[in-house]
Each structure stands twice: as structure tokens, then as C-alpha cells.
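Fold these two proteins, one after the other.
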Amino acid sequence: MESCDVRTRAYKNGKTFDECRQIAEKMNLTLQEQIQAKGKVLWTNLLEQADHDEIVYKLTLKYLRRDGFDIGNSKRPEIKSF
């Protein structure tokens, strides 16, 4: 009898959670460079870069906050450095 393995659940485009985390870490690095160059990045730009993938989008915001960036809020939807 086969059972579903919860660790390999497919997210958007068939990616696993670990693959989503790796993509978010790569996006984190490129966004940090953009923030340093432009001063800020809007949430809509991040969503477009994440290809409207909610898991990658949220993980990228989480990693940016972890690395010391101000990720904004609903009244100020932008990411900038402190």
C-alpha cells in the first residue's frame, strides 16, 4: 500500500518546499543588490520576480527581514534598508 509523503508536496509548478526555499534565497541576494542601488523595491516588483508564487514571495520577505531590511506593511508596501 502506497502513502503520500508529506515532505515532497508539490507547490506551484511542481516544486517542493526545499526548492522554493532555494529560489527565495537566490532572489534575496538579487533583491538586496537592487535595494542598495535604488533605495527601495516595491512589493509588486517582488511578486513579479517571484512569478506570482506565494510561497517564494513570502519566503523572500522572511529572508529579507532576517537580513536586516525593512519589509514595510500594508500602508507602505515597499522594502528598504534601515
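Now the second one:
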Amino acid sequence: MEIHSILLTLSIILLGLLTVSFLRYVRKTKQQIAKQHKIINDTTKSQNRLLAILGQEVRKPILAFRDISKKIDFLVTHKELDTLKKLGIQLEEHATDLNLVLENLLVWAQTHKKDYNYQPLPIPIKQILEELTQSFSGLLEKKEITLTTSFDEAAHLNADLDSLMLLLKNILAQIIHLSSRKNHLSIKITGLSTSILIDINSPIISSNFLETSPNGIVKNFDPEFIKDLILLNRGLVKNIPQSDNQSTLQLSFPRG
């Protein structure tokens, strides 16, 4: 009788251990399924974002170059020089848009495959502003937008040059596209002891500038992708409220 009691006790203990092990296995399996489900959802969202960029943003610039030689020949033949100049400005704008989209797609694909070659280096502030000014000089002139800059020439920012410039180009392109004619845009770069602050100010920057993407307004712009690029460069972003529902977009990066 005592042996039966011992066997029964051992059986109960063994059953309890098996039950605990089974429950742990079920919980672990559920966690793995949830993790895989999240990965699938994130991948699907990323693919949808990619398809949206391809469908909406690449098509328009490419169509702008259709039959371009015939258009130019017609305008030259009929000496429509003013129209030819306007066409040149439009083509420059479309070329800038298309180049930005292609750069976004390349970096987007690399970062999502986790094989982006991140190379942080000390970058002179002056070099960053010169490249931005050169990239958008045509668009700024077309919309008569005044750009003012303020910076410390001796300061260096520690970041990956390609992804940093892509980040800033996306933000400025969005601001310029949404700005009214003769608006003002300012970039102030301040060097602190351990970080570099980039303050971007424009009438169109609101408190939710990097939070929403209204359909039909945003051009070559994905706020989530922008945030990915900021995180990639160990940066931080915040909106500093000003007046009349306007904000200053402030980016912070490690100092070189």
C-alpha cells in the first residue's frame, strides 16, 4: 500500500512537471508566433510604403521627360524662350525629385535588409550646408524662398554622410514643396560640448510635422523613414513650439 502511495505521489509530481513544461512550451510558442507575426506585419507595412513611393512618386518625374526632345525642338523652332526656360526649371525640379526618390529606395532597401554600411565620420558643418544649398538652389529660386543659415565653421558633426544628407534633403524638400512663394527658411546649427543642434525653422513646420503624412500633400516624404535615418545616426528629434501653431524642428547629433 505504501509503494502504491509513493508511485501515486511520483505520478502526480511527474504529471505536474509535464504540465508546467507543456505550459512553458505553449507560452514560448505563442511568443515566437507573435514575434513572427509582428515581423510579417512590419515587412508588409514596409512593402506597402515602398509600393506607395514607387506608384506615386516615381511615375510623375518619369512622365515629365516623355517626348522631351520634341518639346524642346518645338519651343526652339518657335523661339518660345520664356517657355523653354520654365520647362528647364520644371525638369530640374523633377530630376531632383526623382533622384531623391531613388536615393530613398536604395537606403530604405539596405536598412531593412540590415546591411547598410554605416560609416560615422566627423563632417564639417560648412560642408553640410554647402551641399544642401547647392542641391536646392533651383527650387528655392523658383519659389523665391529666402534661405538663411547660421553656423559655427569650426564645428564637426559625427554621422554617416550619405544617410545624414539624405535625411536633411528629405526634410528640406518637403518644406520647400509645402511652402508658399516668398516664404522664409532658416537653418541654425549650434555646437554644444557633446552634440550638434540643427534648428530648422519655416512657417509650414507644425508640431506634428514628423507625425503625419496627409495624402495628396506629402511629396517624396515618409516620416517613419525619416525617423529611421535619425536613429541610424544616433540622433534625436523634437519640435520646439513657437507662435501661431508654428514650431522649430530641432535635430541633435553627436559632435565629431
